[in-house]
Design a protein that fits this description.
Elements: H1 9-15, H2 17-30, E1 40-43, H3 49-57, E2 63-66, H4 70-81, H5 84-89, E3 90-93, E4 108-111, H6 120-133, E5 139-142, E6 153-163, E7 166-176, E8 181-191, E9 197-208, H7 212-221, E10 224-228, E11 234-238
Parallel strand pairs: 1-2, 1-4, 2-3, 4-5
Antiparallel strand pairs: 5-11, 6-7, 7-8, 8-9, 10-11
Helix pairs in contact: 2-3
This protein binds S-adenosylmethionine.
Length: 239
């Protein structure tokens, strides 16, 4: 399995602090209706910031955290293992969303900041697999990341985080790479007190793009009714 995060995974949790600070309330809101009598699933769980929100939002539910990247799983385990509640409820599964053996019934599903990793066919298949498993009234929570079509995106800084004397800066640019696809080129710089580079890592990965209207159409075709919350967080419930 190709790990697009092999080199960059080191930085992702650090650089997602601000993003998750903003996502927290809309994701919690979108999880309304989640049930604890079936496992919750976090697809592409990364370092587990979504797992934490699932655990807070759905007390007592079992959580299946699906994550294909070994580097990301290391961060995920580190987040879980020192928290007795998370450690007792969360099972980490080394798989992709398209390959994972999903439970027969699901009480909530998260797919945050990850859906562009799936091909169109795999994504549509995933909606169907989730639609037949999510219990009535329970949510699939999903978001998109820009761009919404296959266009170039100029180099831009996403965020900078200070840890000790060092600052970690994440930036990136994208280039069209065929119909419905871009290639993101990410740059992670470690800078010292005087803004001098200490280290730099770059990584590239393909990303399937789509507009929110296309996403809502696909979810509707798979039998979901949808609502769009803050920051474009989509809450989809089986119709
Ligand atoms: C940008 S990170 C987001 C992680 C986490 N959901 C978050 O928002 O903090 C994308 C994650 O999706 C994972 N991923 C990549 N391909 C995947 C696939 N086919 N199925 C599930 N997850 C995948 C990556 O390993 C990575 O951890």
């Amino acid at each position: 399995m190709l790990d697009h995060y092999q080199d960059s995974g080191e930085f992702l949790d650090l650089l997602s602090v601000d993003a998750w600070r903003a996502l927290r309330a809309p994701v919690r809101q979108a999880l309304t209706g989640a049930r604890a009598d079936a496992p919750a699933v976090d697809l592409g769980a990364g370092s587990g910031r979504g797992v934490q929100i699932l655990a807070e939002s759905v007390p007592g539910c079992d959580i299946i955290a699906v994550e294909p990247s070994p580097v990301q799983r290391a961060a995920l385990h580190a987040r879980i293992v020192d928290d007795p509640d998370l450690a007792s409820r969360t099972s980490v599964v080394a798989a992709t969303a398209e390959q994972v053996d999903l439970p027969e019934t699901i009480g909530a599903a998260l797919a945050i900041n990850m859906i562009g990793h799936l091909s169109v066919a795999d994504r549509r298949m995933l909606w169907q697999r989730l639609a037949i498993r999510l219990r009535a009234g329970t949510p699939l929570v999903v978001n998109l990341q820009p761009p919404s079509e296959a266009v170039a995106v100029g180099e831009a800084e996403f965020t900078t985080v200070r840890v000790g004397r060092l600052r970690y800066r994440g930036s990136g640019s994208a280039q069209p790479a065929g119909p419905g696809q871009v290639t993101w080129r990410m740059r992670y710089q470690v800078l010292d007190d005087e803004d001098q580079p200490v280290r730099e890592v770059s990584a590239e990965y393909p990303w399937q793009v789509m507009s929110q209207a296309e996403l809502l159409d696909e979810l509707s075709a798979a039998g979901f009714t949808t609502e769009v919350g803050q920051l474009g967080i989509v809450r989809a419930v089986r119709a």
